[in-house]
Amino acid sequence: MPGPLKTVRGIADLVPHGLIVKYVVASVFRVTWGFFLAVLAAVPLGLAAGWYRRAEMALNPILQILRPISPLAWIPIAILWFGVGDLAAVFLIFVGCFLPLLLAVISAVQGVPAVYINAGRNFGLSPIALMRRILFPAIVPRLMTGLRITLGIAWLVVVAAEMIAVNSGLGFLIVDARNAGNRYDLVVAGMVIIGVVGLLLDNAVHSLERASAFRWGFEEKA
Amino acid sequence: MNSLSGTNKLERWLWPILATSLFLLLWRYSVTWSGTKVFPSPGEVERGLAQLVQSGVLYHDIVDSLRRVAIGYLGALCLGIPLGLLFGWYPSLNRIVNPVVQILRPISPIAWIPVAILFFGVGDDAAIFLVFLGAFFPIVVSCVDSVANVPLIYRRAGINFGLTPPHLLARVVFPAALPQILVGLRIALGIGWLVVVAGEMIAVDSGLGFLIIDSRNSGKRYDLVVGAMLLIGVIGLILDLLFRRLETVKPVRWGFRNES
Amino acid sequence: MSASTRPTSATQGPTRNVRIKLRTENVSMIFQREGKALPVLEDIDLEVGDGEFVCLLGPSGCGKSTLLSAMAGFLTPTGGKIRIDGEIVRGPDPRRIFVFQERGVFPWLTVEGNIGFGLSKLSRSERAKRVSYYLQMVGLEGFEKSYPHELSGGMKQRVEVARALAVNPDVMFLDEPFGALDSITRLIMRGELLRIWQAERKTILFVTHDIDEAVQLADRVVVMSARPGRIQQIVPIDISHPRDISSPRYLELRDGILGQIGLAHRL
Which of A80, A170, C115, C222 lies 20 to 30 Å from C168 when distance is taken between CA atoms? Predict the structure, then answer.
């Protein structure tokens, strides 16, 4: 087990080859795609399923069974469908983000106070306008929290996926460093970098949460 | 708020059954249409699982996974709850520890696998260690947050009645924070279950996660892969439901009523 | 509007000739908000007699709740001293209990558990006796095993009052206790509080922004002005209980305070 000094030297070793930048970029690239695809799919579906109770009832059993399955358990299927490569990793992140996000949106919609909906109806909004002008803004604060948690999951999944399904990225760095010569200094260096990048991502969404346009929801709680 | 508030009993069963059958039908026919030789149909998954049950392998794998989760999770509880309460109770202590927690937290428990193997070798202990790590941080963070969120009014009332700090913690802060802590513990259990499966895919050679990887590597038995996945889902759901029953215990229920 | 209440300076202390229970000496409070000093209380001089019922009345933001919190020991004044029985207040104490709005009831305990909260030092049977006594006093028999979320706002408020009374404090601080109740329940609760006060003779400091409430309940009404909070006037209410709220004297006192605060009688 390397000490802090050796770890720092390990990080320094990675810098000159440009490997560190390459791997960080590769990991962030996969996370971005998987995450955005999941958001694009989950938010509209969640709005609809949260609004139409029957749809939620219908989907619920399937969602509840799929949810506890580790995204990693999808690895064989991801490789079967997409081969070893970026697409498999993106798929795994998508799978890991989609369900938590969908469930978060559904519960956020169901938590919107009835007064807002009634007020919207009172002004004669059509169902589509109701979703766009009432439901969506009303869930934004909780949605932001959901997004932050989901991005955290995406980051967890990409590291794990890279350890198995691809051969670049920070997860690969860890496995590779271990397999190719037990370079545990590089293993710990990789872990530190993973932690730091994860923290940065979390902070980015957090500052988005604090943007004044979304803040009404958070002040209400205080 | 929902589009309709009251639904009758019939619908409560009708829609899920309808959707699930539709899903299974879609699955079955897309296997036929695409002409895949590898991806299994629902029927094949069922036969594969039946085979495993008969050979007794499945039972051992399930017990192994559950044992690892139980030990790792209990360890995380025993260490995480007191620490979380402590840090929540002393905000200044929390400010010192928080940066470390925030850096360690986003590291995937999976990324610890090499470290786990280095410490414990391939085997049970490595997987248990991973479950412990996966559950530990969410437990600590949820305890810290829950304690910090206890309304000032309750603390003041407790102090007013002359409670000493240990009593204040035991009789006011802990019960007030309990509903929120339980939610955190439930989420941590879910994470533990996610992690054990992932850990077993790499660091051990038994358990449901190993079953998935092994079925794929030794002969592309994708019927067993999908079967194991479904099993993982069902067991995870059962764990979650069991935990939810805790939340309906009377002295705890107040916290969950207020939310709705 | 001619206020026929007496001038203030002479009535800093209690009207009846009793021992002084609580005294504030030149109390001031300055909060630091985003680097700026925000004076909340200034020069509060007040004496409260043993067993007296005093209302602190003022618009929201006048610092009356801050003053009450300081008296109870939750906040330390930045200037001046608060003494109870001649002793400087250094922190909260079970001899003086603060009653919050009904939000202060512990939701994880039953009605019984809440009322007995401060009695853990007593034996089980002694505790049960005290709890049932105060349960009866606030009229909650039959709800011993109920949880707060099963009770109405007024019932929760009774639980809080009973919880405070059960430890037999000398002083009770009530911070807009009936503020969240509907007006009918509020009227009933005022009557109950007076009945309990007359039976137990606690010293009560009661914060409210409701002029009628103050005049109906208090021996003296301390009218406060806002930003920074100062004592504007102290009005003794010289009507005996039970008070007739349509009597000329009641209306006169009420209108006097209305004028003091700067509100016309007619809207």
Answer: C222
Establish, for the pair of chains B and C, how many residue pairs have beta carbons separated by less than 8 Å: 60
Q: How many whole angstroms separate alpha carbon C140 and alpha carbon C192?
A: 12
Residues of C in contact with B256 (CB under 8 A): none
Overall number of domains in chain B: 1
Residue A58 has pLDDT above 70, yes or no: yes
- Report the DSSP pairing between strands C79-84 and C87-88: antiparallel
Asked if C103 reaches chain B (Cβ–Cβ under 8 Å), the answer is yes
The owner of tokens 């009557």 is: C191
pLDDT of residue B202: 79
Q: How far is Cα C54 from Cα A175, in angstroms, rounded to an integer?
A: 74
Average pLDDT over residues C108-123: 85
How does pLDDT run across A86-111, given as a tens digit for each residue? 888 999 999 989 988 998 898 888 88
State the pLDDT confidence band at A126, using cuts at 50, 70 and 90.
confident
In a domain, B2, yes or no: no
- Tokens linked to C86: 């001649």
Question: Nearest 5°: phi and psi at C56?
Answer: -100, 120
Question: What CATH code is carried by the domain that includes residue A160?
Answer: 1.10.3720.10
Question: How close does chain B come to C243, measured CA to CA in Å?
Answer: 32
Q: Is C31 on the interface with B (CB under 8 A)?
A: no
- How far are the Cα atoms of A90, A138, B1, C181 from residue A108, in angstroms, in the given order? 26, 9, 10, 30
A-B contacts (CB, under 8 Å): 169
Is C139 part of the contact surface with chain B (CB cutoff 8 Å)?
no
Domain carrying residue A48? 4-221
B258 touches chain C (CB under 8 A): yes
Nearest-Cα distance to chain B for C174, in Å, is 12
Top CATH class, C1-93+219-267: alpha beta
Query: Residue B251: its pLDDT value, please?
Result: 63
| Residues of B whose CB is below 8 A from C76 | none
Cβ-based contacts of B102 with chain A (< 8 Å): 199, 202
Chains that touch B (3 or more CB pairs under 8 A): A, C
- ipTM of the complex, rounded to two decimals: 0.75
Whether the Cβ atoms of residue C53 and residue C218 lie closer than 8 Å to each other? yes
Residue position matching structure tokens 């997004």: A147
